[in-house]
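Record minuted for completeness.

…
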Amino acid sequence: MRKKIENLVDEGFRVSLIETAFFDGKLEIPHIDGPDKIIIPSGMVPFSIRTRSLDKNDFVCFYEHDANFREILTETESYVDELKQYPGVITPDCSLYIDAPLCVQIAGIYLNRAIGYYLQKKVYMLFQIYVGEMRGHIIVRCLERKLLFKVLINIVLFQLEHMDR
């Protein structure tokens, strides 16, 4: 019987999820293929309240406090069948906050790609949205930052809608 993974360190940052992955760049971050087609979600539902999506047409996202989605990090395999009910998943971004130490940001990017790679391999339509850059993630905690986050998401959606297909 496999020991339950209680935290990320129990299994070395979930290396079992990326056994067959290709790795990008100097930091060897797991590679996620681009989607075959672009789908504009009819809505997004946070992972912690995904069951409230009555028609299951929303994308599942992780734009909430890390504590609300820690299970997807430690028990990814057990959510595959459930997540197949939705048209897409936006990869989780862990600890989004401004001026996090670089090592924390890199670990967050790794987890984003490791979970994303596994879900893409097992499931379906997966979207990777990474807001910000290595030294300036966005946290959604105060009103000003929430407004900035909404503006950035709207810019991304506008660009996707107007891409040459």
Q: What stands out?
A: The longest strand covers residues 44-46.
